[in-house]
Specification:
Blueprint lengths: L1 H83 L5 H15 L10 H9 L8 H23 L4 H6 L1 H21 L1
Helix pairs in contact: 1-2, 1-3, 1-6, 4-6
Amino acid sequence: MLSDNRIGRYLARAVGEVLLIVIGIMIAVQLSNLNEQRRNSELERAYLERIASEMRSNVARFSQYRETANAARQVIQRFAAAMNNPAATNAELIKATRDYFSTGWLFPDFEPTTTTFDDLEATGNLQVIRNNQLRQAMIELYAIYKRYKRSAAIHFWTEHNTLAGYEEAISHTGSVLEKVDAELAEH
């Protein structure tokens, strides 16, 4: 009987120790999962903040480039008008020519910043963005950027393909930026 009692206590103690070990392992796994989720959430927030910053910068730079292109277009029109005007004086022709060579021939070559998205794509971290709709909208936006980047390279120095072509991308940027800002607000 004494022997049975010892065996029973030994088995109870062994089962208790095994349960403690299992519970300890489960707690450690849960803590590890929580830490991984926290790190992923922080990483997602950092990426979203960088994406939002780049998008704002792209929109602002595009606006500046559009103003420069409009100014250049006006200089070109004045230059063409002066050249086609038989009554234009030498002073008017010289001024129109100087204006043309100082600013009229400059059409900005807009190229959006895509560093963060390129990083997300190259590292496989695109999946860190948990909102599927936002992730898809970003993929579509950057596909538009890439399409116009190739188009601009082919049609170098034509305003139509360097700025007007990016109009679609910039208008799409605004809607994606709203989604990014909404996602950041939830973090």
